[in-house]
Design goal:
Length: about 70
């Protein structure tokens, strides 16, 4: 039972992460609008949304640092 719950939570977190990325692709969307849309769609607490947004930001910065270091060439 716990395994199914863990997988379900991981899948929900991944869906939230993907939705944040898709909303960030839109022009002129504010952070407040993103949080409101995600709350309506996923029915999660604002703290969980903020944590996911921090994760998106951290992943972006990691990728940016790798690109700037010259390890990965485009």
């Amino acid at each position: 039972m716990k395994t199914k719950q863990a997988l379900s939570m991981k899948k929900n977190t991944q869906n939230l992460y993907n939705d944040i990325l898709s909303l960030l692709d839109k022009d002129g969307v504010t952070k407040k609008e993103i949080v409101e849309q995600l709350q309506e769609k996923h029915k999660v607490a604002p703290s969980e949304i903020r944590n996911s947004m921090r994760q998106v930001r951290a992943d972006f910065l990691k990728k940016l640092n790798v690109l700037q270091s010259g390890v990965v060439r485009i």
